[in-house]
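Regression check, zinc ion case 132:
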Amino acid sequence: MVNGTILHDSEQAKLERLNAPQYSCCGICGRPWNVVKTHTIRIAEHRGCFAQCEDCWKTASDHDIRLCNELLYYDWMNSGSKVGYSKEHLMECVEWALAERRGQVQKPYYDYSEGKRLPWWRLLWLKLTHRL
Ligand SMILES: [Zn+2]
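Current build output:
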């Protein structure tokens, strides 16, 4: 995460970043990766994206989680790096991760491959049983 897009920056986080300029940081609290652990959101079978730290993953609102992942995606695009998947795919994976965080959906229910959707009967069942 670049420094300009930290959602809830603090003086402490700024100090920590000054002391660890070689590290990137959490997009929500701004603390660098040498002091906080990354929380990875799976976006492919062997690929993940970490816009937020474990602490923020536990406490941040759904809105902030969505926003910081979206901002990270734009950062990648702007830096010219090959992202390899669409923003829609990332946001879909974020939604699944959030549903899982709420305890509504377990991992086996969904597939991480881009373009693959859950079968309609599975979605209907999840809706009917209030898991989605
Ligand atoms: Zn954080």
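Comparison notes: Residues 62-78 form the longest helix (17 residues). The chain has a mean pLDDT of 84. No diff flagged against the previous build.
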